[in-house]
């Protein structure tokens, strides 16, 4: 395996784009003497294609409000991005994965409405009742509970789903922007490295002539 790792102070690298440990691990898989980084470059090129297709599929799932599909796609692209070391896309996709499951973006606990909106909904869903009407309402609620009825208002569930979609929209936008930066850097990295190899070959040829 080749020692083609890049350093934290590499002039080509904006350290905020890549997880250097993950990317250097990928570069270490190139064959010894493979100055073109053929193996890792193929993996990166495949990642580019996967990312473009997955983002397009995410757009379709978002338009269809398919949270389950968004979660699955987020999980997939999270893993692909982690392999390359594209850490910010990985982070966005991780949050999309959780939000698609109606969990908080950090994966801890279920997603909920803002307290102010939830309080307003609770008030709207509890109109003032006369004593007799209240007794009748309590009886119906008890009967519903015995039948295993859904105690959460459908309106609130819909609003939680919409909140998840709103948050996913932000993550999708950010993820695409971060992917573009990573793609530009990675293409530049491989092209610049190949140009350096060509220059070395030209220098060797000139030395032979001398």
Automatic annotation (TrEMBL):
Coiled coil: none annotated. InterPro entries: AHP1-5/YPD1 (IPR045871), HPT_dom_sf (IPR036641), Sig_transdc_His_kin_Hpt_dom (IPR008207). Gene3D superfamilies: HPT domain. Keywords: Phosphoprotein. Residues 119-158 are annotated as: Disordered. The modification Phosphohistidine is found at residue 75. The keyword Hydrolase does not apply. GO terms for molecular function: histidine phosphotransfer kinase activity; protein histidine kinase binding. GO terms for biological process: phosphorelay signal transduction system. This is Phosphorelay intermediate protein. It comes from Coemansia erecta. The lineage of its organism: Eukaryota, Fungi, Fungi incertae sedis, Zoopagomycota, Kickxellomycotina. The gene is YPD1.
């Amino acid at each position: 395996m080749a020692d083609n790792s890049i350093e934290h102070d590499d002039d080509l690298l904006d350290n905020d784009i890549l997880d250097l440990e993950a990317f250097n691990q990928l570069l270490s898989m190139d064959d010894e003497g493979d100055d073109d980084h053929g193996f890792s470059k193929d993996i990166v090129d495949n990642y580019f294609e996967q990312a473009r297709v997955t983002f397009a599929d995410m757009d379709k799932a978002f338009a269809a409000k398919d949270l389950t599909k968004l979660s699955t796609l987020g999980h997939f692209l999270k893993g692909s991005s982690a392999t390359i070391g594209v850490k910010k896309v990985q982070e966005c996709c991780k949050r999309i994965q959780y939000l698609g499951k109606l969990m908080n973006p950090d994966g801890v606990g279920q997603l909920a409405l803002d307290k102010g909106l939830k309080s307003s909904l609770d008030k709207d869903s509890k109109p003032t009742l006369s004593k007799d009407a209240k007794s009748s309402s309590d009886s119906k609620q008890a009967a519903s509970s015995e039948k295993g009825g859904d105690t959460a208002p459908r309106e609130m569930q819909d609003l939680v789903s919409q909140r998840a979609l709103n948050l996913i929209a932000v993550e999708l936008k950010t993820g695409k922007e971060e992917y573009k930066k990573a793609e530009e850097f990675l293409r530049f990295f491989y092209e610049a490295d190949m140009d350096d190899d060509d220059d070395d070959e030209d220098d060797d040829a000139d030395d032979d002539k001398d």
